[in-house]
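User: Hey, quick favor. My workstation is busy. Could you predict this chain's structure for me?
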Amino acid sequence: MDDAKLIVLAIGGNSLITDSKNVTVKSQYEAAVQTASHIAKLIQAGYRVAIAHGNGPQVGFILRRVEIASSELHLVPLDSCVADTQGALGYNIQMALHNELKKLGIDKTAATVVTQVVVDADDPSFQHPTKPIGSFIDEETARRHEREDGYSIMEDAGRGWRRVVASPLPKHIVEMPAVHGLLAQDVIVIAAGGGG
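Assistant: No problem, here it is.
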């Protein structure tokens, strides 16, 4: 690997939603292509790249599907929802990058690493969760989730009730040796999606 400078980029999960009325996987992929075209130019200019991404709306979509299917299927833990989005969004980003790099005649590989972040179990945010996730629900449904599923809930600015989760400070990423190893092989790495 050469001495090219490493750039760490963060793609917001909301930036992959360009039209709130069209949130399909296809439309999110098209948004990823727009972003990938800019990243490909950085790579063409000689930079190495590592990418992190958000996942707020995408986790919300998963949680909504879970709520709709709750009469027939099990709830999905939040960490599994985050891992799901790491894989799905990472796949779209790496596929978009591959295609954009190919247009430029650049033969490079991108790989997604599903990552786990270690946090302090005593982080104060666990005592007072404040990060809203998922869709708005009525108070009765919110209270039922609080009672039966252990959700922390809150009324969100007069718009309805939502689940809230902790947002603890990260200590380290478990898979960082794998990320470093891939970067050392000149692979474009997509990791730490949604903070995970």
